[in-house]
Write a structure and sequence with these properties.
Length: about 200
């Protein structure tokens, strides 16, 4: 692959693609949630977009059930200059409604699967993911966005993907706009970005 090809491939790296979509929706001062903290990539991104830590603007909450995720994310944020700009919460994303009020959040992100570099047996599950996604929609303001990056295949199976897509397909068409993106010429089971825009409160 030549230099231009590598640059194009990096530009359309799936996480970058998702971030560019979210960046168009988030403004300084917005409240955002990273529902699956992992190693903190989305947490850092949300801090940057919402202006967290800059003149008191922005507020980011990030959830994970693994202490390693909080440790990795805390270190990442410190190195990026966002130390103390996000509230890192050791709890399931199913409980996010205990920490914020309904219709107060501009963006919620999910990266399904397991912690990169971590225990593959500890991963998101269909039932809890759908429940958390339901709560996300309740927390979003009108015009807010829920982003779910769905990974499936040998390590994580297909049950969660099928459950999330079925749930999203059945959402009220008057209240939500659901956008699914697919890579048609990638081998195996490429990730599926799903965006849900809340059009009515």
């Amino acid at each position: 692959m030549n230099t231009n090809g590598r640059a194009l491939a990096e530009e359309f790296k799936i996480t970058e693609y998702v971030h560019r979509f979210l960046e168009s929706r988030i403004r300084p001062g917005d409240l955002c949630i990273d529902a699956t903290m992992g190693n903190g990539a989305d947490t850092e991104f949300l801090c940057k977009c919402s202006g967290a830590g800059q003149k008191g603007e922005g507020n980011v909450l990030a959830f994970d059930i693994q202490p390693d995720a909080l440790e990795h994310t805390q270190k990442r944020l410190a190195e990026a200059g966002y130390s103390g700009c996000a509230r890192l919460i050791l709890d399931s994303h199913e409980n996010m409604d205990r920490y914020v009020k309904p219709q107060s959040v501009k963006a919620v992100t999910f990266n399904l699967g397991y912690l990169p570099g971590g225990d593959h047996s500890i991963a998101t599950r269909a039932e809890s993911t759908v429940r958390a996604a339901e709560k996300s929609l309740q927390l979003l303001v009108c015009g807010g966005v829920l982003s779910i990056l769905i990974y499936s295949g040998k390590d994580s199976g297909y049950g969660e993907k099928d459950a999330v897509l079925k749930w999203a397909k059945e959402l009220d068409t008057h209240r939500y706009l659901v956008i699914r993106t697919d890579y048609l010429n990638r081998p195996g089971d490429p990730p599926i970005p799903l965006f849900i825009l809340k059009m009515q409160g």
